[in-house]
Specification:
Number of helices: 3
Radius of gyration: 13 Å
Largest sheet: 3 strands, parallel
Order of helices and strands: EHEHEH
Helix content: 40-55%
Structural class: alpha/beta
Strand order of the largest sheet: 1-2-3
């Protein structure tokens, strides 16, 4: 599972993600967060990993191309079964 986020998403979604982990303890949960918010999530016992998303570096028209390359290099290797967006 992968969860993209900003600060508000993190604060409001942590209880739901904790509930998912309790219900499915073998589930590996990764959380995609803007780079500036990753310290909030690092070290959490409910997460397998925290993936820093370099949003500032991927802005603009050329950011689309760089974003695609970033996603291919960063996300494809994990072959996620599910992505959740709590917005």
């Amino acid at each position: 599972m992968l969860k993209p986020s900003s600060l508000g998403d993190i604060v409001h979604t942590l209880p739901a993600v904790a509930a998912i982990k309790r219900a499915f303890p073998r589930t590996k949960i990764d959380w995609l967060a803007n780079t500036e918010w990753t310290p909030i999530l690092e070290g959490s016992s409910i997460l397998e990993s925290v993936i820093p998303f370099p949003r500032q570096e991927l802005r603009g028209i050329s950011g689309l191309w760089r974003g695609r390359k970033w996603a291919a290099a960063t996300l494809r290797e994990n072959q996620y079964d599910l992505a959740l967006d709590f917005q």
